[in-house]
Design goal:
Low-confidence stretches: none
Strand order of the largest sheet: 1-2-3-5-7
Oligomer: single chain
Largest sheet: 5 strands, mixed
Helix content: 25-40%
Structural class: alpha/beta
Number of strands: 9
Number of helices: 4
Strand content: 25-35%
Radius of gyration: 13 Å
Order of helices and strands: HEEEEHEEHEHEE
Length: 118
């Protein structure tokens, strides 16, 4: 994860269980415990499974920008302050204090989410 190592808001990270990343960001930004998946469409069931399998997880990333998530999963994540992102969304979220709220914007400033049907 050379991109993660060179990100300006990342001080350090440790990888475990092949898919778990404990990321220390520059102060005053909070640390992130992320799980990397490769699920084409992350639904609420897949999100809950990731949360239950990895204690303390506060971010779920579905690798590949062709992947996405359901509105139900994203709504649950936002309500519970859990980041749910595609790969490129995640690297944008690293800059934000409340990283779980990160979203790309369209030309008019409206949020863009990677919604897909389950």
């Amino acid at each position: 994860m050379g991109v993660l190592k060179s990100h300006k808001k990342v001080l350090d990270f440790k990888r475990s269980r092949d898919v778990v990343f404990d990321i220390t960001r520059v102060p005053p930004l909070s640390d992130i415990r992320a799980v990397l998946t490769n699920i084409y469409t992350v639904g609420l069931a897949q999100l809950m499974e990731a949360i239950q399998k990895v204690p303390g997880v506060n971010c779920v990333i579905t690798g590949g920008d062709w992947n996405g998530y359901t509105t139900e999963a994203k709504d649950y994540a936002l309500q519970n302050q859990i980041g749910l992102f595609t790969n490129s969304e995640f690297f944008g979220a690293l800059w934000w204090t409340n990283f779980h709220e990160y979203h790309k914007k369209d030309e008019e400033g409206h949020p863009i989410y990677r919604y897909k049907s389950a």
